[in-house]
User: Fold this.
Amino acid sequence: MKTKDFLLEIGVEELPPKQIPALISSLATNLEESLKERGLSYGAVKPFSSPRRLAVLISAVSEKQPDQPLELRGPPVEIAFDKEGLPTIAARKFATTCGVEIAELKRILDKKGEILFHQTIKSGKYTFELLPEIVVQAIKKMVIKKPMYWNDHAGPFVRPVHWVVALFDQEVIPLEIFGIKATNKTFGHRFHSPKPLVITSPNKYEALLENNGSVIADASKRKEKILEKTSLLTQDDVALISEDLLSEITNLVEWPVALMGTFNERFLKVPKEVLVTTLETQQRCIPIADEAGELLPRFVIISNIESKDPNQVIVGNERVVRARFTDAEYFYHQDLKNSLIANLEKLKHVSFQEKLGSLYDKTMRLKTLSSFIAPRIKADVSDTSRAAELAKCDLPTQMVWEFPELQGIMGYYYAKKHENETIAIAIKEQYLPRFSKDQIPATLVGSALALADRIDSLVGFFGIDKIPSGDKDPFGLRRAATSILRIILEKNLVLDLKETLEKSCTTYKDLIKNKGELVARILDFIYERLRFSYIEQNKNVNVFRSVLACTPTDLQDFAKRYDAVDKFTLHSESTDLIEIFKRISNILDKAKTLEKLKFNPSLATEAAEKNLATIVEQKKEIILDFHRRAEYRHLLSELISLKVPLGHFFDKVMVMTDNEKIRNNRLALLQAIQNLFMLIADLSHLVSG
Amino acid sequence: MSSLGAANSAPKNLLYLMNKNFYTFQNIIAELERYWADQGCVILQPLDIEMGAGTFHPATFLRAIGPEPWRAAYLQPCRRPTDGRYGENPNRGQHFYQFQVTIKPSPQNILELYLDSLKVLGIDPLTDDIRFVEDNWESPTLGAWGLGWEVWMNGMEITQFTYFQQAGGLECSPITAEITYGLERIAMPLQNVNSMYDLIWVDKPSAVTYGDIFRQNEVEMSHYNFNHANIDNLLNQFTYYEAECKHLLASSLTLPAYEMVLKASHIFNLLDARGAISVGARQNYILKIRTLARMVAEAYYNARKQLGFPLLKGST
Assistant:
């Protein structure tokens, strides 16, 4: 089949850099879907994107849709012809639809009887004719976060559109969108190459822009260029460039040029996080550190032009950086004039949440709750309590007002003046982990505070019914729950969640209601996050459920049970034991033995029954002991040893006998056995075999 | 602009000594006015009421509403009491100048028009790195928002560029393009100075600096804004202007009502600087002003409609 290359380019005013990756992928996907829908085959899809363009090159698009056999079914013969055998209106209409004479119509047998029938071949349309709608549909279906209008209400699109290139091989596809007709003319760099450039064929697009337009249209190539040029400047030093910053810078330039700026060494006395944040988020410049990780008084500027006088660009950037650093330095010294604790009073006037009081109230709750957590996880109690008191005191400082993302970090620096290092570090660590792959607190005091902060928020927001739903989680409660799990599990902390949540509820006094039910809901919520993380790690969801059914509230214990049960499922005897357990559960369910029954050995009549009772009596203490010591694998081995006597019991003994006393006695025995099983997990959730 | 290539390679303070291609602060204003006058803009004067940004001038906020075409440019002194630094900060003050251009509908070549205006000031985009960096503008008090950029020149934000999407809660159609030049920020690199107070306002026969004219004002106004403004009196004034605005709207006096919004807004800013507004109350005040702005916007639209949208007649 003959194929041709296709190119679409949308020329726009400067796009929001952070949205570009999603925009171009949306456009490329839509084009592919649009082609597929129409049965058109195609080869490689290559996306291009820059601040001023979104383009997709699709090679080897079939020139024509494949021909398709078409079968048309008409009216039944008895309706199509009258008694004289002359064609009726129905027959004539059908013939017209098929575009043939009535005589040419065939007859076939259908479910309804004999009908008129016509078979033909629908020839596929030419791709060139289909492309206008394909392109327009693909553009209109793009997912745009904040669409806008311009001029006389043109739009909606991300930014105003200035040109559209749409080529099928060498031919311009006749289409118009946002009032702009497609052509074969693109535009290069806004300043270096303002004149139109004619694209003679789609596959020459990239080279034309690079050689004649001062534009590197391939974003990944531009990214490489930025890294390459940066490392040429930094040499043995290290460019501190995060993936986010790199991607943003890549999408702010079409023709990257790296330049080196410097700043006065005196600014290095300001906390380095402040300098790095200023350079990264405000100036989109790249900070530099030496091999030891110490910040250097230099930074890399990625400019968008080959300046006639690069020094102007450097001096200009240095001027702004100096002004911003001067401001930051001023804030830092202003803030240092007060001790951190002096800000505590100010927190009375800062709201945490309308219904949950001020940040001062939150601080007082944190103090109580973290002091409750500290001894349980073996963190120093007085350090924890002091850290909690100071935890939010950096929020009213000038620096955090200016750079909210530095909360905790500034608290660390300001606390160092009067407090011990452990307290200062805990203030910083309370916000860890900030995102999914972030580090967790290194210290125990930091962990106690981080846990208290998250638990307080969960209890508070659940308490006033601000619960996440769907993709809405404005208070980051899912992340809070995940953070709690990570801290406890990765640091191997032993903390009873139920007890801790209950404690947190009491610190809210009358601000929240229905505390008992609340704790259960939050536990469910936290375990739901745990389930997600188990799924992510490809763990066995049934095992998870079987353990969850016993509602352990200590996560370490949960993990131990999970591991034991998971290993158990691989054991050759597990299938039988699971079946037996399910049988026990079924019998007990059917018998509706709600009250606790007591087994009486003297009422046992059958040998198998007596034997089982004796073995259970022997094993009971051993099993309870393994349970106390959380040695769940041994516990399961003991349960496995019950398999044979249980098998005999079910073979020989009828549980639901007519004699009520004997029946209840047998149910009591089964109940005792079920209780032993339930010490670790509810095996009925497991799939046997 | 080809003459600039060679001249620009010399340091700019030398240019001043050479007295060639040097832009005094008032030259910059005059050049911008002349340039935008050539683009058919009505050249207006500043509004004689305190405001936080040129957007509040009726020539921008109100004219963005409704179908009538509009082109205007004007200088506007702005007051932001909380930004006062007692004249100590080289970049920030409670009083500064914006040069504002507002055109409806936004012409297709509006960015080119803007870039040409920079060339008029001697900025060569092949020497200076000019960048359009996403910055979406929102005024919670005006119930207005738009999409656009902050324009960077070598990393310095020199202009805010916005395509209005909504004003006073009303959808904009056609769309107004708003260009707000931060004059001090443009002038500093042009004159190669590091403090706005060192800017040369006029150079002949002897130089007068921005500091000569405004530093005392910065110091005294900072003291007034932060320490002396009478809180109780301001609170009363706020209540008065709020009521007066509603009262005037009831009498269909749209433009006077809008002046009351401006007054209330400035008083809110002063109270904010005095630390008289708690975090919780803050939102409430903003909401009150937005409500007024919305009411005025709607009344203004209706008033223009009753007049038959007079400016539509002039357009083709």
Observations:
- The first helix of chain A runs from residue 20 to 37.
- Residues 284 and 585 of chain A are 64 Å apart (CA to CA).
- The radius of gyration of chain A is 37 Å.
- The mean pLDDT of chain A is 92.
